[in-house]
Amino acid sequence: MPGLPGGRVSELARDEHWQRLDPRMLLVHPIRELVRFLPVLIGVVVAGTATGGGDGPWRLIGVGIPVGLGLLRYLTTSFRITQGRIELKRGLLNRHVLSTSLDRVRTVDLTSSPIHRILGLTTVRVGTGTSSTDEEDRLDLDGLPVERARRLREELLRVAPAGEDGRPATRPRERVVVRFTPGWLRFAPFTSSGLVIAAAAIGAASQVVNTFGGWERIDVSGVVDGTSGLPLWAAAPLGIVGLLVVVSLCSVGGYLVTNWGFTLSHAGGSWHLRRGLLTTRETSLDDERVSGVSVCEPLGLRAVGGGRLAAIVTGLDRKQQGSSVLVPPAPRDVVTAVARQVLGVDSPVDAPLVGHGHRARTRRYSRALLPATALVAAVGVLVGTAGAPWWLLLVAMAAPVLAVPLAADRAAGLGHTLVDGFVVSQYGSLNRHRRALATGDVIGWNFRSTWFQRRAGLTSLVATTAGGDQFVRVLDIPEDAAVALAERALPDLVAQFVRR
What we know:
The protein is α+β, with helices and mostly antiparallel strands.
């Protein structure tokens, strides 16, 4: 059996026989089940108190059931790595066995919740690119000691390849590419996460208010009729400012919890990411499976010079895209610098793009202005026939005014290029993407055209791949340019379908 320096045994060698997870999980599983059954337990206690039987043994039975389920979860879960496969077996009445070949491993994530961190454990999630949405089909080893999990991750991703004597070579030196800095927090309010968190908080507060008396007990008549300390015209702007402050604080808090301690490093042919404040997460991406990058610049981040970066990883579908984040919202120069290092060349990030012509630009304006004009017409009809307030028409007229710069920005950002073996596509305004995909990872081309596109002589060229969203789209490109681009990128694939 091959070993490691210092007498340690290789993880892939020691796991040939079925074995259970770390015994410290006997503390984790019962606690998880208790939390899951907490609403039921509270109901049992309340019902027992109301019927006068709250001092009986039923409370102990109610607590014992989730604790017993947690113990069974540990006793019925085992795993092994043998004959080039990793296998996970769990369940008592409904037996579930997961098995996958080691060469299908795409990513390995190490996730540690607060209780895992206290006990020195972590969950090893093996990403294999499966399309299943069932949580029972996840290959999670929950949990292993942190050091053992890291060694297993290295061997699954072949970070330390074996030498001639069968022993893994010396662990390569890790090179830190980028680290989180507190200055990145200024980008948090310009993301959508704060709005989501604030909406959830407002919804939870609403439920609490309804539970303890309802909104009817809150007197807002003074605000509505203007007899309070502040007139309505002053209270409304203050309310908007207060909402913006709450959303910004929620954004900063969410950013800190998710990305605190973020570090991107490279060692031994893999990219390693670490992040998280309460729950820590470590992800490793093999160089051979990183087929490109996606630079995302939502309008808010672009306005303050920010962006974020994700890797296009073969075998990793959109449900696992959290594992491919290379840089969270950060300064754009940091994003582009990391993108260049991941690709190994600068041109896909910096090269000027080929525009798609006046017909594509016209399409940007028509798609922005027609809905805005229809909105103004509909509101005008309501004001003229249904007696709607006249100021609604003024509000609606802002839509065409805002649509013009939006269309101009979309037209300016639309383009493509083929440079240094990468197909580069850019489109969007509210959420602009610039994607660079290696031509060697393009497995097919699709030409998709709506009726309106065909009338304008345009098409959408879709490069099919096995990573990320499973495609990279070149939007509204002239048909002859689309054929030329596809033929230049993969001549052997397209030439047989081209009519000379």
